[in-house]
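Can anyone check this?
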Amino acid sequence: MPSLRDTQAAFSAAIRSEDARSIAGLVVAGGIAPEERIQIYRNNHRIGALDVMQATYPVILRLGGSEWFCQSVLRYQQRHPSRSGDLQFFGEEYPSFLRADLAGTLHAYFHDVATLEWAYQLVLTAEECGPVDLGVLKAVDPDDYERLRFVPRPALRLVESPFPIFAIWHANQPSLNSPAERPGAEVCPAEIRLDAGASRVLLIRRRDHVELRELSRANSLLLRQFEAGAPLGAAAEAMASEDGDFDLPSCLRELLGLEAIAAILLDDGPVTVGTAGDHR
């Protein structure tokens, strides 16, 4: 008699494959053939995964079509079976799967679109932390500004691509080109050229929606510096080496205006609100 662990492993293998021989002898018929019983679970397993992936990657579904998407998800599920009863993160590896699966094809850009859609899910479920109170800057001596660290909010992601993924994402929403129904989104043309240029998309959760908007190259580079933990002085130096026309005050104002920053630290500690010099 096989152990419970061996029985569970055999059942799991039968669900993920078309071969139920290893488990069929342990299934009581009860009016339904063992293979038919197992097929019920197999179908539920696949349908459940497909439902989750359709909800997670609606743009990829629309771009590839239902038939292709179903086959893609089936192959993905076989290579990356869920390890948890919670399917929230089942699609985490799908962008990487598409990168390998579609490499060298006309649809290689699907990887970048899927990366954007997964970032949407991460922003949607990230812990909440409101924007920083800019009044803390009054407590900082101007001579110490270069030591300041600007910490991005947790419910924020930046996705960069050589393809126009923001336009692709927006043009494939259920309510096309409707800024009123997609707060923060801009109207995009229905016809999109893949060689239209790079896209740098900021995703940030607002009170009742996730906002997506394009960032300039300079703003995205500065945000990447902040994500890496660089203090303002080092970030400015790195930016100047990348872009001689980099305007630090302008970029910083825009990121703060977007409420993208959760905290402002002096070195690795919080700034104490008070008069300039009190933080020392």
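Reply from J.R.: I decoded it. Residues 4-108 form one domain.
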